[in-house]
Amino acid sequence: MVVANASYRRNPQVEEAPLGGDLMLFDPAKSQFFVLNATMAYLWRSCDGEKSLDQIVETVPSEFEGTESRPVAAEMKAALDELISLGMITGG
């Protein structure tokens, strides 16, 4: 679950590889592959252990043309919740 002002970090066990415009992740502990679209890949890469979700969302408009922060914040929170539930992101 996403916690306000908490910082988030990628699971160091998860491997990544580019897949066209997407990003493929492999979790060796579960032997599972995941494919992230550009938005989720941006979120994944932004979880460096130093930024909160709010800080990540603030940078989205400069990275993705035509986005507004309010819908992006809701989408990013849902994406972060999903990555946390899958064990791909830790923090909170």
Q: Can you tell me the number of structural domains? A: 1
Give the strand content: 25-35%
User: CATH first level: which class?
Assistant: Alpha Beta
Strand order, biggest sheet? 5-1-6
| Distance from first to last alpha carbon | 7 Å
Which structural class should the secondary elements be placed in? alpha+beta
Number of DSSP helices? 3
The low-confidence parts are none
Question: What CATH architecture label applies?
Answer: Alpha-Beta Complex
Report the count of strand segments: 6
Helical amount among residues, as a percent range?
40-55%
Mean pLDDT: 88
List keywords for this structure.
globular, 30% strand, three-stranded antiparallel β-sheet, 92 residues, 3 helices, 40% helix, Outer Surface Protein A, domain 3, alpha+beta
Give a brief outline of the structure:
The protein is of the alpha+beta class. It has helices spanning 38-46, 53-63, 69-85; strands at 7-10, 15-19, 22-27, 32-36, 48-52, 89-91.
Describe this structure in words.
This protein is of the alpha+beta class and 92 residues long. The protein is built from three helices and six strands, in the order E-E-E-E-H-E-H-H-E. It has one domain: Outer Surface Protein A, domain 3 (Alpha-Beta Complex). The chain has helices at 38-46, 53-63, 69-85, and strands spanning 7-10, 15-19, 22-27, 32-36, 48-52, 89-91. Helix 2 packs across helix 3 (69-85). It is globular.
